[in-house]
Amino acid sequence: MRKLKESRRPEILDAALAIAAERGLDALSMRAVAQRMGVTPMALYGYYRSKDEMLDAVLGRLLAEIPIPPAGLGWREVIEQLAYGLRAVAVRYPSVLPLVFTRPAISPAAVRVVDATYQALLAAGAPPAQVPRLERMLSTFAVGHTLSEVSGRFGDGTLDPQARRAQLTPEQLPGHTCLASHLDNPVDWTDEFRTDLRDLCELVERLAASARTAT
Amino acid sequence: MRKLKESRRPEILDAALAIAAERGLDALSMRAVAQRMGVTPMALYGYYRSKDEMLDAVLGRLLAEIPIPPAGLGWREVIEQLAYGLRAVAVRYPSVLPLVFTRPAISPAAVRVVDATYQALLAAGAPPAQVPRLERMLSTFAVGHTLSEVSGRFGDGTLDPQARRAQLTPEQLPGHTCLASHLDNPVDWTDEFRTDLRDLCELVERLAASARTAT
DNA sequence: ACCTGAACACCGTTCAAGT
DNA sequence: ACCTGAACACCGTTCAAGT
User: Which of A159, A167, A202 sits opposite B104 (nearest CB)?
Assistant: First the structure.
């Protein structure tokens, strides 16, 4: 268990993010990072014990770019700004986003975002016992929706609804048939993100309201 | 653009799923699949054009294991059964779950799950124009929550809340400090999944109700 | 304190060939 | 129709050594 160096960590994370942004997550190898820094791959192991540990740090660096909203904002604004902040970061580094779902969110930056959300939910009047659950629901939505969009789970444009339905007969897909008129127009994902978030905030409000009447 | 063989595809997908379940997604290599089938790695390229294409098929095979609820159920039951079905599959093959967020959901199995959800939302009385959005919200939640749990994003037990807070001073984390009493007890993820799903169904109900009064 | 070089056990994939 | 074998350009990581 050697002691690790700190000095060039920021440089390493910058190089890693740049590679991921330019050539995708698969191209983000220790050898690529080393080459970009003009150093041997083995030099990196003085700073991180493994690639896995380096990726944790890359994720932390990413989440650190989400701005924490200033004090004095309404709770809805706080939640919206955090969600949009995550979305903005994700759009800049789409290929790194899968890491969020794949490793524990324990970096200081991640914990600060969680804490700001806790405060907002408490300010909204949500029952304290439910606040951690609601934070998990909101963050799961924000990350999941953005990741679905940028990774193509929602359909990446190259494969339109017609092509999807073509694999099965219309009789097997009554739902799609009913909604045919709504499935052809393209979707504005930013808009949908905002609408979903509003609906989820309504849900928080309703939980807060029913907690007030219960006491 | 050669013509691909079909014959041994099921065998290949079985081998791939078994490897992923036993040794994780990183161990799921073409060479490992080939070895398990007693064949040369290159033999696989007669069935799939690339590893990427094979992974798409693995995902399709996984989603095909989600049972489609029988006709005659209430819309809430349909949505719940689909969500629990996804969760059950995910728990059996946790390491494959990240693929859901990483590639388009265009397999016949995926489309059938989406269609069943469309039908349930229409039966609930949700405005047709909002049904695709609500389906995306529900599936994003179901996959995201399950993936967060099994991949450790929600905290994997080895790193408790105390350790998370220890990285920052209590003054920097007023939200965590307020909720201290609620953050120490362990969470039953299955229970939380059910509660969240109920809340989301309430949201659908409310949208349906306000659509009724608007007309 | 910081970095290198050679080596090991792996990858996905191409190409030409074999039955 | 189905599979093999050798080869290429990659991986992460260990170990011993160099300044």
Answer: A159
| Crossing angle (nearest 10°) for helices B30-37 and B9-23 | 110
pLDDT at A164 exceeding the cut of 90: no
Pairwise CA distance, residues A119 & A117, whole Å: 5
Say whether A128 and B179 touch across the interface (CB within 8 A): yes
| Window B34-63, strand C contacts by Cβ < 7 Å | 41-42, 45, 50-52
Query: Is there a contact between B43 and B34 (Cβ–Cβ < 8 Å)?
Result: yes
Q: Say what the pTM is.
A: 0.95
Map residue A166 onto helix, strand or coil.
helix
Q: How far is the CA of B31 from the C1' of C10 (A)?
A: 10
Strand D bases near protein CB (under 7 Å) are 1-6, 10-16
Picking from A18-32, A168-182, B140-154, B185-199, which range would have the lowest pLDDT averaged per residue? A168-182
Rounded-to-integer distance, Cα A126 and Cα B124, Å: 27
Rounded to the nearest 5 degrees, what angle is found at the Cα of A42, between the Cα atoms of A39 and A44? Answer: 70
Q: B158 pLDDT exceeds 60?
A: no
Residue of chain A whose alpha carbon sits nearest to that of B132: A183
Q: How far is CA B137 from CA A107, A162, A189, in A?
A: 27, 22, 12
Which tokens belong to A71? 């004090």
Q: Which two tokens stand for residue B191?
A: 């229970």
Q: Does at least one atom of strand C sit less than 7 Å from the CB of A26?
A: no
Q: Do A26 and B51 meet the contact criterion of CB atoms below 8 Å apart? A: no
Give the CA-to-C1' distance from A32 to D9 in angstroms: 14
Write the burial class of residue A58 (CB in 10 Å: 0-12 exposed, 13-18 middle, 19+ buried): buried
**Cβ contacts of A203 on chain B, cutoff 8 Å:** 199-200, 202-203
In a 3-state reduction of DSSP, which class is residue A183?
helix
- Residue A14, sorted as left (phi over 0), alpha (psi -120 to 50) or beta, turns out to be alpha
Cβ distance of A104 and B132 shorter than 8 Å: no
